[in-house]
């Protein structure tokens, strides 16, 4: 397990409760922009980071495993001298959060797991996608990515935002994206879920084609003791971006309870 120094954006009061946001495969820190101001207004210290291989973070050679991504977050907390933090993740960021909840419980104040899975197959799909990206670049998967991230109705109403998200995916380094595909391909955290003791909120998008509530969010919520499940209507995989008011309300409610 080897950590890299990931790119981070830190905002808010130094003495505020710390919330760390981890993003989806194919995203960078900009995906969380709708959540920043509401949390700052409540006094939280907001830390967003780019997953290794994404955005402005380093792109070490693969393979990557989920424990590598978790080690990166622990190194981030150490860098910033943060003893414990609330972790909010979506998709790959939430997979990383689950790993931290299991392997570094003393560093986790609470978890919010959005639009994610503890085991996301089939493995061949991830291997095929990684092969495509290494051969053709991330632009080759950008359109399909946005079709999972947004409902068709939202993309039609907001073509500028859909184009912005396509460019976000296309801007991810090919090796970083592909190596993260490998981490998801080999990940299986189902049996570890009962070990998570942090207060946990699971949020799903009702129209998420990548990690539908049935078979993903419901299994996570059932596996983590005391976890609560919320399903947001009219949201696909990037629900925090498509339905920001509802996701932010749920996140804030959970953080303030925790």
From TrEMBL:
GO terms for molecular function: 3-oxoadipate enol-lactonase activity. Pfam families: Abhydrolase_1. Residues 17-244 form the AB hydrolase-1 domain. One of its GO terms (cellular component) is membrane. Gene3D superfamilies: alpha/beta hydrolase. One of its GO terms (biological process) is beta-ketoadipate pathway. This is 3-oxoadipate enol-lactonase. The lineage of its organism: Bacteria, Bacillati, Actinomycetota, Actinomycetes, Pseudonocardiales.
């Amino acid at each position: 397990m080897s950590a890299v120094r990931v790119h981070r954006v830190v905002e808010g009061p130094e003495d505020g409760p710390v919330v760390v946001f981890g993003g989806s495969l194919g995203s960078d820190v900009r995906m969380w922009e709708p959540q920043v101001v509401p949390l700052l207004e409540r006094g939280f210290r907001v830390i967003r980071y780019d997953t290794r291989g994404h955005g402005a973070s380093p792109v070490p050679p693969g393979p990557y495993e989920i424990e590598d991504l978790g080690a990166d977050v622990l190194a981030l907390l150490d860098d910033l001298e943060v003893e414990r933090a609330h972790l909010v993740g979506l998709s790959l960021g939430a997979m990383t959060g689950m790993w931290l909840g299991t392997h570094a419980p003393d560093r986790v104040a609470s978890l919010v797991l959005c639009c994610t899975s503890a085991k996301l197959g089939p493995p061949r799909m991830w291997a095929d996608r990684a092969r495509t990206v290494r051969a053709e670049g991330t632009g080759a998967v950008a359109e399909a990515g946005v079709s999972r991230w947004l409902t068709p109705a939202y993309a039609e109403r907001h073509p500028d935002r859909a184009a912005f998200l396509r460019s976000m995916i296309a801007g991810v380094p090919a090796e970083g994206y592909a190596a993260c595909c490998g981490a998801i391909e080999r990940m299986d955290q189902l049996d570890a879920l009962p070990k998570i003791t942090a207060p946990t909120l699971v949020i799903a998008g009702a129209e998420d084609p990548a990690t539908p509530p049935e078979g993903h969010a419901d299994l996570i919520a059932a596996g983590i003791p005391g976890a609560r499940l919320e399903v947001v209507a009219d949201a696909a995989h990037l629900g925090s971006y498509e339905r920001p008011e509802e996701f932010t309300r749920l996140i804030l409610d959970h953080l303030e309870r925790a």
